[in-house]
Fold this sequence. Notes:
By secondary structure, the chain is mostly helical. It contains ten helices and six strands, in the order E-H-H-E-E-H-H-H-E-H-H-E-E-H-H-H. The protein has a three-stranded antiparallel β-sheet with strand order 1-3-2. Strands 4-6-5 form a three-stranded antiparallel β-sheet.
Amino acid sequence: MADGAGVREYRMEELAKEAGITVRTVRFYRERGLIPPPRREGRIAWYDDHHLARLRTIAALLERGHTLQGIAELAEAFENGRDVAELLGIDGPSEETPVRLTPQELADRFAGQVTPENLAAALDLGYLGTDGDDIVHISRRLLDASADLVRKGVPLADVMAAGQRVREHADALAELFVAFALTHAAEHPELTVDELRPLAKAVVEAELSLALDRRLSRP
């Protein structure tokens, strides 16, 4: 069945068949809160493609060794997370490219370290948001760097903790440069915040490189 918006809907038996599981399993997942409630039409319960996508994600996560309890905690974290509209509510354009992921793809990126605690930290930092059944990471560069650190053996929890500290310093630097531009805007109208962005990035990158040189050269 398809509704007026063209979304395909299924009775429970049809949904179970499409997902390759039993009706009893669908009912169990529903009772555990692993899938959202169906749409009711009288005594008939209608499920849609979002339910099917969630069931396929659950199956993939189970194949990768996740427990149902762990999947339930992840689902709860997603439901309580900020949606992508809120996450990307930034005035003006951003140079960062968001990345859309399924829960399965996110779990694969971080080698099973996507625990409820790490997921909550990423949501709190604003790295992740939700869009329907998908997850959106706010920055491809941050996602790739974080995944690379985990592949090299750094626990994701430590990556999240470092991200929090970097965020605090980055916010302070951004405030410094914006205040600098606003202070001199009257005398130098060409020095807009947008014009300042590449200059600020160049200064920060150079100073960080020099700081790493100094730190790594210590005996």
